[in-house]
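Input structure tokens:
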């Protein structure tokens, strides 16, 4: 995931399923503000009900753009502002480490160097 990766403003990330697969990531709206929240996949079915559609948005597999990085005094990231589907939301760095992944560049395997 994002552990060891260097996120910068302007980085494109994909929200992925963590290794254990029991939790997923949603945007929880409080008024006009949104925050990324971990939700168990068992409870996700409850939040898919029509009365919760305006409160929770499931974002697994979606793409996000890092807009701002909040740093501590040691210049370590502690949080990110991420733009996901038109919603700018706050995400703690520990959540980003679990759920954010850089997109992979397609390698051009057709071109190989010859060994003469």
């Amino acid at each position: 995931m994002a552990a060891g990766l260097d996120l910068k403003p302007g980085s494109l990330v994909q929200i992925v399923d963590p290794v254990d697969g029991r939790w997923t990531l949603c945007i929880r709206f409080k008024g006009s503000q949104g925050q990324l929240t971990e939700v168990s996949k068992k409870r996700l079915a409850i939040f898919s009900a029509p009365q919760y559609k305006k409160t929770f948005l499931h974002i697994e597999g979606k793409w996000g753009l890092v807009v701002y990085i909040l740093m501590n005094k040691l210049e370590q990231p502690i949080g990110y502002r991420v733009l996901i589907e038109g919603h700018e939301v706050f995400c703690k760095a520990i959540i980003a480490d679990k759920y954010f992944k850089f997109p992979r560049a397609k390698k051009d395997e057709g071109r190989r160097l010859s060994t003469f």
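Strands lie at 12-15, 23-30, 33-40, 56-58, 63-71, 77-84, 87-92, 100-101. The chain has one domain: 12-101.
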